[in-house]
Amino acid sequence: MNARQPAEDHWAGLRLTTRARIGLGRAGNSLPSRRVLEFKAAHSAARDAVHEPLDVADLNDQISDLDIEPALHVHSEAGSRSEYLRRPDLGRRPADLSHLPDTGADLAIVLADGLSPRALADHGRGLLEALLDTLAPRYSLAPPVIATQARVALGDHIGEALRAQTMIMIIGERPGLSVADSLGIYLTHLPRAGRSDADRNCISNIHPPDGLDYTTAAAITAALVDGARKLGRSGVALKDTSRDQLTGSDARILDG
């Protein structure tokens, strides 16, 4: 009797084009053991990315050779990681900003742990370097700020305290079952406490080599900064078109 040949995997080619779990197959009434183990590994990686604290000293060491002032540190009102996850409101408010200088700088850059400190540890230095290469020749920069137990809105308090015209917040995005180390950039023009999500622009999915690369993310950010300065505000009225043209372009400003 001939041995039973394994069924042809018709999904193999398509599976190479996406991180989504497609065409997983079946073993009786369940999934194949390999797919179950892959899911459990991805779930564990996502949990670890959320709970592992940011090593602030290590991040400081990573960025110490960049042409920028020494980083400052801000902690939110969340006293622990557990409290941060249970009380998002505390992550939006700073514990103390008295040590931040009044800079009047064009730009402030915040490096925040967010929901994936791992993402900031893995990609923060590379993304910051790309942003500096793109923006530093054209704009004055406040000292960078490392923010821990941070939500996005914490950046508005920091930008206001620094008296920066535009705030750029690099933050670890919520891990998923396909990506646990993705960064996002949130840009707010004229940052101040009480700004809403409608006042911000977001660039997400920054995690080379599978996600957006640092250079492209920096180019998009620069286009949004230029557009925000022309328009006088950021958010829903400001749209990026830099990825629509091979040479890049300024952000498109909408009158409405």
Automatic annotation (TrEMBL):
Swiss-Prot/TrEMBL cofactor(s): adenosylcob(III)alamin
A Gene Ontology molecular function term of the record: cobalamin binding
EC number: 4.3.1.7
Alphabetic keyword roster: Bacterial microcompartment, Cobalamin, Cobalt, Lyase
Protein residues bound to adenosylcob(III)alamin: 152, 173, 202
Pathway: Amine and polyamine degradation; ethanolamine degradation
InterPro entries per record: EutC, EutC_C, EutC_N
Major localisation: other
GO term, biological process aspect, one: amino acid metabolic process
Record's subcellular location: Bacterial microcompartment
Known catalytic reactions: ethanolamine = acetaldehyde + NH4(+)
Top-rank taxon: Bacteria
Summary of subunit composition and partner proteins: The basic unit is a heterodimer which dimerizes to form tetramers. The heterotetramers trimerize; 6 large subunits form a core ring with 6 small subunits projecting outwards.
NCBIfam families per UniProt: PRK05465.1
Similarity remark: Belongs to the EutC family.
Function in brief: Catalyzes the deamination of various vicinal amino-alcohols to oxo compounds. Allows this organism to utilize ethanolamine as the sole source of nitrogen and carbon in the presence of external vitamin B12.
Protein name per Swiss-Prot or TrEMBL: Ethanolamine ammonia-lyase small subunit
